[in-house]
């Protein structure tokens, strides 16, 4: 780990992390981290030396052209920053990276060890996956937790997925093995409109993270962008009768599966979120 600044003394820090690649359908989770970095004016903290973890023929470095003629190279890696959200008495460590090409276990041990040095006791890992969820309904967010009691306490809908996993799943397991609490939140991105960005899924992840941590998150233009995205997909779907019919089938299936009490829980959660944001002066 390359420390960009000396390790600061952090107050009750929590980690929020996301990775580009397999874990990031529609760039929803990496978009959430980019939003948090900008909204909270995060300052760089450290980065991982990419030599041991990235195949540069697969994940290539980027060269830029500056006005003064310089041509710096940005290497693909995982970077950490730190922020203190306004009105909150704790620090947030933000980790945004690219899924490594090799040595995943060593990669995770390095991150977990560094977080231990910072005093992190809870990690929130964000991901997004392609699913058969309709774009016109609320984005489902499911997840897993290292501690079943923690999952129950935050009313987390647990995923029943079995199969190949990405770096998010491996990192959560590494946190659990080290005795640290970790939660992963996964947003469902409609597979028929998988191209990024997907601001609606990004917004869903941010709202669920806000509920989990009880930290107000400035949303800026995201709600408006999410509405515009949904409207745009509506227009595209209406131009293809087969797609329109498929979307209607997904909507009917989703509506039939949602119990009335589940809808009531969603309304109650939204109202509680509104009250917290109003009391703290955040975006309503």
From TrEMBL:
GO terms for cellular component: proteasome complex. It comes from Thermostaphylospora chromogena. This is Proteasome assembly chaperone (PAC2) family protein. InterPro entries: Proteasome_assmbl_chaperone_2, PSMG2_sf, Rv2714-like. Pfam families: PAC2 (PF09754). The lineage of its organism: Bacteria, Bacillati, Actinomycetota, Actinomycetes, Streptosporangiales. Keywords: Proteasome.
